[in-house]
Target: F-box domain-containing protein
Amino acid sequence: MRNRRRTYNVRATPPSLFPESLTVNSIVQARGDWRSKRKCYTGSWDQNIPTDLLQDILSRLGLKANIKASIVCKTWLEEAVSVRKLQPRPWLFYRQRRAEHEYSPAGTYILFDPLRSQQYKLNFPELERNHGIICSRDGWLLTYDSGYALFLNPFTQESFYLTEGSPYKRSYSLAFSAAPTSASCMVISYPQISSCASVVIDTWRPGETVWTTHWFKNQLPKRIWGKCVFSNGMFYCLSTCGYLGVFDPSKSTWNILPVKPCPAFRGRIPVLMTEHEGDIFVIVYTCKNNNPMVLKLNFKRNVWEEKKDLGGLTVFASFPSSFARAGLSTEQRNKICLSYRDKCGRYDVSYSVR
Model:
């Protein structure tokens, strides 16, 4: 669906905060002497692939694609495993409770490493007021306070406010596609409560001096869009009625997917949403059997499917963001790690999904 745009002029963001561009090295030819170049792998397609070129190609694949490539043959398996990059476990970041110490200044937060069970106390003057964490991605947090949005990296302690004039306001929320230091970063402001004839989505990229406003015809009035994840170049927004709206930044379009509503919303139960390499998951927590329900979107059939296992993934679930990781230890796979207090009063527990 096409839209109309309007821009607002605002004060420029300091250009020194962001690189002009991020480049990726191109795939290079085989390196080394003539002996290494002679060692090639021949596939059924009758093409020769030099050893180092094969390694270079496999090293650029994500974990999911790397695993698929490893089943081609024994040689590909060996090379794929040798360059496989495992995904790290996410860390927890939360405000320090006053009860934990006799005194803690405003803006004191805890950064917790679940792998080593270590915590670090950090002070962020930028968060001394009542900043709320909207979402997180690639090590960055997006927070807000009194209509102003702030990017914060707890690991490097870098922080900066988004361009003045941010359209963040009550009944709206924010999401972003990548770290703000990346050339592919985009921030969107989308309505959580859609009650008018139009859906209004504002977009901004680091380094831009304006927010761009998009108007779309509201196909589902009076809906609440409570969850949003970025996957495959698009923002997926899930309504409390189970409908899935998609904003495509490259085409500036907003559409409702022709998918039967997600059966996750049944009463006031916690519902979380995450993605992993193009797959969209919805997790529903209930007290029944102490087991959450996991739903995965089947894009080919346009249906939500309940999954009995996570395909080896580990989901770290929390508000406001949840993450899926692959390649963790065997005992950690097919598990959902909960890091907030659920409806039954449980906190920091794990569920096995098999």
In short: The helical segments are 34-38, 51-59, 63-69, 74-82. The chain has three domains: 1-13+136-257, 88-123, 263-354. The chain is about 10% helix and 40% strand. Residues 263-354 form one domain.
